[in-house]
Amino acid sequence: MNIQIHSIHFSLDKSLKDFINKRLDKLISIDEKIIKTDVYLKMDRRESYNNKIIEIKIHSNLGEYFAKKQSDSFEESIDLVCQALRKQILKNKEK
After folding, report:
1. What is the full DSSP assignment across 46-73?
2. Which end of the chain is more exposed for a tag (fewer CB within 10 A), N or C?
3. What pTM was computed for the model?
């Protein structure tokens, strides 16, 4: 399983990277056929609130999953995105 994390216009610290990998490992445990995951971290406007954006695209043998969320912190955005992706994966597995 290949995880690529892209931080756009800022540098990513190790603790946030570990947090992302930990959350994605939970999704991988639901669908073992996940091939590749692309994670994009962006900041909308630095001076405003609710400016941390996370986009995650998961490529699996069963299909592709995508979610994008925005909140005050990257950690909260990651949790929201992972919840949305978890629902998509579970729904697709039921088919």
Report:
1. TTSSS-EEEEEEEEETTEEEEEEEEESS
2. C
3. 0.90
